[in-house]
Amino acid sequence: MLDKRLIRNINKGRCLVLVGSGPSCELGYPSWHKLAELTYKELTKMGCISDSKSYEKYLAKKEYPELFRQAERDLGDRNALIDLLKPLLNPTEKKQGVLYELISKWPFACYLTTNYDDEIDTYLARSNEHFTVIRNRQEDFYSWRDGVSHLIQKLHSDLNQEVARFL
């Protein structure tokens, strides 16, 4: 059973929620492991693999930042990696999820998310709740102060920001 003090504080609209990849995976977005596998597969198809043993080691050890850094090097730059990732960061099939629907109904002041997609914003808009999306640039963090509300902070940024720093 949930502590009534927690429910009271959430209902006052003073709490933040941290949203990880679970709700997005529920909708069919790839997990980190699946995205790493898909990236390796695409690079192999393109003939851009410089060291397949490294990729296999990174996958086996779940060292995803290392794998994506290697992919960036093999592709030549970050923009080429982002271009490769954009079509991979979509739901494999559009599933109906429950988690985003639930968390968008609670009166959280702000949402912190590590996700690249825009699903939380979409679900909030469906409930006629409109939030400002900020990313991870230094100036985005200036928005945080006592009493702030209606922000979605993309902690890892997203693939639409010009200089995406996501790993």
Helix content: 40-55%
| SS content category | alpha/beta
**C-alpha termini separation:** 37 Å
Count, helices: 8
Biggest sheet overview:
4 strands, parallel
Overall, the morphology is: elongated
Query: Could you tell me the number of beta strands?
Result: 4
Strand order of the largest sheet: 1-2-4-3
What would the average pLDDT be, to the nearest integer? 90
Beta-strand percent range: 5-15%
Elements, N to C (H/E): HEHHHHHHEHEE
Poorly predicted parts: 163-167
Radius of gyration: 18 Å
Description:
This protein starts with a helix and ends in a 13-residue tail after the last strand. The chain has eight helices and four strands; from the N terminus they run αβααααααβαββ. With 167 residues, it is of the alpha/beta class. Helix content is 43%, strand content 9%. The chain has a four-stranded parallel beta sheet, with no helix packed on it.
